[in-house]
Amino acid sequence: MLDTYLAAGGNFIDTADSYMNYFPEQGNEPGQSETIIGDWLATRRNRDDVVVATKVGDHPKYMGLAPATIKAAAEESLRRLRTDHIDLYYTHFDRDESIPVDEIIAALDDLVTAQGARHCDLQHQPRTAFRITRLLRS
User: Fold this and answer.
1) Count of H helices and E strands in the chain?
2) CA angle 94-96-102, nearest 5°?
3) Cα separation of 59 and 51, whole Å?
4) CB neighbour burial string for 65-86, b if at least 16 within 10 angstroms, e if fewer
5) Among positive and negative, which fits the CA dihedral 53, 44, 76, 60?
6) Counting Cβ atoms within 10 Å, is residue 59 exposed (0-12), middle (13-18) or buried (19+)?
7) Among 94, 90, 93, which residue's Cα sits nearest to residue 119?
8) Burial of 30 (0-12, 13-18, 19+ CB in 10 A)
9) For residues 64 and 55, what is the distance between their CA atoms, to the nearest angstrom?
10) What does pTM read for this prediction?
11) Distance CA 30, CA 119 (A)
12) Average model confidence (pLDDT) for the chain?
């Protein structure tokens, strides 16, 4: 399916470290979709032809957006995706508002600075967007 998608002109692949976790009764594991995509990228040797996006915050082992969690989850995503960078790294869920939003932003900035991710963004994050707005206005 991925070969057909790429041949038809598609080049953006979106996944998450938690995808496949929701169907354990079918033998699926968290991170499995990243592994499938990583194996495909490695086999086809087409990493430069594809924009890869993945997410952090909902993997059972890396839940939330604490800076250490973001770093560890990114390292695991890079390993599963078999790549040296993630083109777009989303925060998936902001479950713990006790983590200061500036610490989340700093952790994402560290990831970009270290070149593990090229860009970062929020997804499903109206509370985090509000928290960032509040931070910027203070």
Assistant:
1) 5, 6
2) 75
3) 22
4) bbbebbbebbebbbebbbbebb
5) positive
6) buried
7) 90
8) buried
9) 11
10) 0.87
11) 23
12) 89
- φ/ψ of residue 83, rounded to 5: -140, 165
Instruction: Note the pLDDT tens digit of each residue in 48-94.
Output: 999 999 999 989 999 999 999 999 999 999 999 999 999 999 988 77
CB 54 within 8 A of CB 81: yes
Contacts (Cβ under 8 Å, ≥6 apart) of 57:
18, 63, 64, 65, 69, 73, 91, 92, 93, 94, 95
Cα 83 to Cα 46, 78, 136: the distances in Å are 11, 6, 34
Q: How confident is the model at residue 125 (pLDDT cuts 50, 70, 90)?
A: low
Active-site residue 19, yes or no?
yes
Q: What is the mean pLDDT of residues 86-115?
A: 89
Among residues 19, 62, 89, 90, the one annotated as catalytic is 19
